[in-house]
Amino acid sequence: MGWFLELHAKLERVFFPTLARKYAFILLLALFPAALYGLLQASSTTIRQLIGQHPALPAVMAEIDRLSSWALCLTALCLAFALIQVLYLHFWITRPVQRITHVYTEAASDEGDLSRNLPVLTCDEIGQLAQACNLFMSKQREIIAGVQSMTIGIALDAARSMKNVKDSSSATRQQDELARKVVTASEATTRGINEVSERTGNISSSTSTNLGVAHDSYNELQDVMHRIHAITGKIATFNQTVDGLNQRSASIKHIVDLIKEISGQTNLLALNAAIEAARAGEAGRGFAVVADEVRKLAEKVRVATDDISSNIDDMLEQVAETQQETELITRDANLTRDVVEKASGQFARMMTDFETTSDALADIARTLEEFSEANRLVHSNVAEIHQLSLAVNELMGRSATSADDLSLAAESVQGIVGKYKVGQGELDATLTRMSALRDRVARKISELHERGVNVFDQQYQPIANTKPQKYLVSYAEHFVRELQPIYDEVAKTCTGGKFSLAVDVNGYGATHNSWYSKPLTGDAAQDLVNSRDRRLFNDPAGLRAARNTQPFLLQTYARDTGEIMTEIDMPIHVAGRHWGNLRLGFDASEFLHKSKP
């Protein structure tokens, strides 16, 4: 059986590669009656020669002629039937098959059109095949539309994941930086705690030593205070003795003065007695001698009393000085006693404070030890957090790469399935509308170019005092007048449309939508959102959009305003040159919501 199939395949490739050649065999079948007619004609001649003048010859020949006529009619009928059959097969088999082939050939092209259905012209297997093909194409359209929506969702989720990863990575880096700072601070704190603990221990030891010295000093001070009290008592007793001595000295001086007075009177009496003895003459001579002796004695007494009085005066003066000095000593002793008592009280309070300080220092030392242990634990935990932050940061980097790869893969899949026109789905409708509007924008720019406007001007002149930085080119005002209305129309034609503008290959947009072309206010956050005209969008997403040369580019990214934006970009060609792209940004969430059945 295998050799037969192989032989058939070879013959088919050489002689019957098309249905038309296969139909030719139907015409060959019509030649069989013609061959029969030829055989009958040849047979009639042979029969005529064989039977000669046989009486049956006319009848035989008439029958042969009748058969020949029928053979000729049959040949004509076969040819007509074969021709009709060939035409029928051509119109009802070959042409539908060609249509199927044409539709699938177009579907298999780079920009395949899957939106058309095959006409169902018959009820036979060809019609069933067309219905099956239509069902298959419908399913393919559903799958492709679903894949388009799904890839938009994947790209949206990937962009959100990328933004979240970047935010998380930034937070992780901040956490890592804070962890490093905490580790550094913890190390410094540990060193400080150790130093403070060491110094606290030294102070506590010194305080304990000083407390012992203070106790000894307090005891000595108490002894000094007792001695001062004793000295004060003795000084008081001595003061009383000096007072008594002063009083007795005064009494002695009074007695001496009395003796001195008596001596003076005695001297006067002796003088009077001498005078009287002289008057008495010889009789009073003995009395005169006595009087003279008395006078001498009185003189000696006077001299002695003068000396005694002088000594007593000196003694009284010294006693007075002693009394004054004793009073000073008493005052000083009392003052010293008061000072010592006050110092003793202060010393007692100081010892109490020393004891409190010593206890506090001991508590501080214990607390510092506990704090040091807690700080070591914190340091260990923060160091672990630091290591975990590094690991998380590395994982975040991998996640960012994976999210970026996922986004690129989604864009690649979208680029592949987006080549097919499916005739259904929001993306297909948006691409169709945007393509027409892109052509309008391209025509407008081409018209400006034909009027002599330098639409390829790339001498971007910075506009002073603008933030975000704006630039001016020669064709900017023309774009504002003629293209801004189209931009607004493009943005409004798309479900969830946010913005639309044409940018050159460097990402420069001379104007923007009317709601994004407001004057600068000086508020950087507000101007970033509302004043986006005349800017160079040369971020990675902006440059990809500007330099796209594919029929369209679908990308999802985090905008500089923080929004997650999905964007369709279509290239613009002017005078045979790639001028840039028309960008259409939209909210994929609204887009996908409308795309759901």
Can you tell me about this structure?
The chain has eleven helices and eight strands. With 597 residues, it is of the alpha+beta class. It folds into three domains: 18-108; 172-401, Methyl-accepting chemotaxis protein (Helix Hairpins); 425-595, Beta-Lactamase (2-Layer Sandwich), CATH 3.30.450. Strands 3-8-7-6 form a four-stranded antiparallel β-sheet. Strands 1-2 form a two-stranded antiparallel ribbon. Strand 1 (461-463) and strand 2 (470-472) form a beta hairpin. The longest helix is centred in the middle third of the chain and has 156 residues, at 125-280. It comes from Chitinilyticum piscinae. It holds the Pfam family HAMP. One of its GO terms (biological process) is signal transduction.
Give the SSE layout.
Elements: H1 2-15, H2 19-51, H3 57-107, H4 125-280, H5 285-417, H6 426-450, E1 461-463, E2 470-472, H7 476-482, H8 484-493, E3 497-504, E4 508-509, H9 524-530, E5 535-536, H10 540-546, E6 553-558, E7 564-574, E8 577-586, H11 588-595
Antiparallel strand pairs: 1-2, 3-8, 4-5, 6-7, 7-8
Helix pairs in contact: 2-3, 4-5, 4-11
Instruction: Classify the fold: give the CATH topology of the largest domain.
Output: Helix Hairpins
* Strand order within the widest beta sheet: 3-8-7-6
Proportion of residues in extended strands: 5-15%
The helix/strand order is HHHHHHEEHHEEHEHEEEH
Key words describing this protein structure:
alpha+beta; Helix Hairpins; Beta-Lactamase; 3 domains; two-stranded antiparallel sheet; Methyl-accepting chemotaxis protein; membrane; transducer; transmembrane helix; MCPsignal_dom
